[in-house]
Amino acid sequence: MTVLAFLSNGTVELQGASGATGILKGLAAYGFWGYLLAALVGFALLFGIASALPILFTWAERRVSGRMQQRWGPNRVGPFGLIQALADGIKLMFKEDIIPAQADKFLFMVAPGIVLAGMVSAFALVPLSDSAVIVDTSLGLYLIAALLSLEVIGVIMAGWASNNKWSLFGAMREAAQMVSYEIPFGLCILLAVVSYGSLSLREMSLAQAGGFLNVGNWLIFHNPFFALPAAVVFFIAALANTKRAPFDLPEAESELVSGFHTEYSGFRFSFFFLEEYASMFVISAILVSMFLGGWNLPFVPGSAVTGSFGGELLAVFTMLLKSFVLVFVMIWIRWTLPRIRIDQVMSLCYKYLTPIAFACLIGTCWWELAA
Amino acid sequence: MKRDGAMVWLGNIKDALWSTMVGMGITFRHMFKKPVTYQYPEDVVPVATRYRGMHFLEQDKCIACRACEKACPVDCIEIRFLRHPGSVNEWFEFSLDYNKCMFCELCCSPCPEDCIHEGKEFGFARYERSELVVDLTTWKGLRDVDHQRIKEAEEEKKRKAAEMAAKKKAAAAKKAAEAKKTAESPEAKSGPSETAKPASDPEGSKPQTPKPKIPKGDAKGPSSKKTAEEQKPQGNQNKGKGSEKGKTKGKGKKRGGGK
Predict the structure, then answer these.
(1) Closest-CA residue of chain B to A246
(2) Within a domain: residue A200?
(3) Res A105 pLDDT > 70
């Protein structure tokens, strides 16, 4: 998948001189095969992270939802039920992989792959610290937006190929939802681009270092009247992007019987499952990089990366912490709000989010010119 | 307040944000409350004191009178035992068929010894129907105590028999002596036969304490039931732990008398 990212950019910059990325850079010196190996190593790394995070998030989701409903949540497998998600993963792998007789077999088999591929490659572009980034391109945000949209195609393919009316309804809803949320989503990205003059998430994080208490240069504090509402709009659009409640219309367990993945089982289903939880992290990391100061630890001036190993570690830790907080908020919202109707989604996105995002964008342009 | 135009739009945004925040506040507060669920296998929901669950039998109290078996409307109780001297029961089976049982508790009320109860166990999930036929006995056959008691009872019986034989012999000798002398009275004839009767009773091994109690209870019962009931436990307490068997026996007999 990283090959895709390499090709789409043309100029490959493998970051850093230490750690895993350093090895990748060393391999890149061996020409094509070196690049291929680097890509494979990068992919393995990414796939590992993209599969490991959902384990944590599903556990968190089930524990948090349990406590919000005054239940215990999983507490049998491992301490506090921590290994429950792993047990479920093993279960999913050993389940029968059923393909309906009337399904479009090729599309049915390919769809989960496309969904997961888009998400995993988006992972490659998320900087966790100055050097802990697999691919840092000058097209960062643009590419991420494109790769996250790829997932929608996979969902529509899955819904169509299942040859099931529920699945098709789910897919159609996903399409309708996508054209609604992508506009405010894109406008908020544009707002960040206007503010920083760059599409690279790494440069955005670097630009947010320093300021009052090391938070003054965060976009939401640097430009509070326009960036703060834009961050909220982006977060709402991100919820829709990850297909999570209250925007889980394509899935809609209670009405569409899991919507687009009704017919999927076993390992192929787990692809959709992984994608949902991993994309939660990707979207949160993007939001943190754009609006919430990236890897800059608040109240600790000079915590921005200095190139030392400790500094990098602190940066990664900060980035993960901030993203996990946002993931928690996503979980929190899911267990608070009921699902809204498709017409309400469109009304929300077209009549509220899009005008607000536009206003914020224009306001930011003015703010940046005035500042 | 009536809204129009742009105010509707702004008002909607305000409402949406406000209601979302209120909802999230509620879920956040609930997150720190104690879960209300029970962790079932380890942590069982408390049931009412009068819950009708799986029966339990106080086997050492049971006298195998079969009152419960007779009372059961669906015939789900089966009792098999062998009566030995000294009121000792050799147990083979006291089983309840939970395929049939409807937990009416009609088996518990007629028990003269108050030894069968409905417990709090409610888990009746089994793999086979036959597993629902539950044997309530805590032991089968005879315990060491029972052997001891049978032995004692038999010895007592022998002793009583010997005593009676001796008495008979004495009486016969007396009779013969009296006959030898002169004419005799009818009272002297009936005397020895009355004393012999309790000796032949199988319950003879027990202390004689219940005997005086029966006339006491019966005398007071018809006139004032309350006072009789009040006196019953008092009488038991006074007697103390020395005669456990006599106590229960007296109680049971009294109940029967009440009917």
Answers:
(1) B20
(2) yes
(3) yes
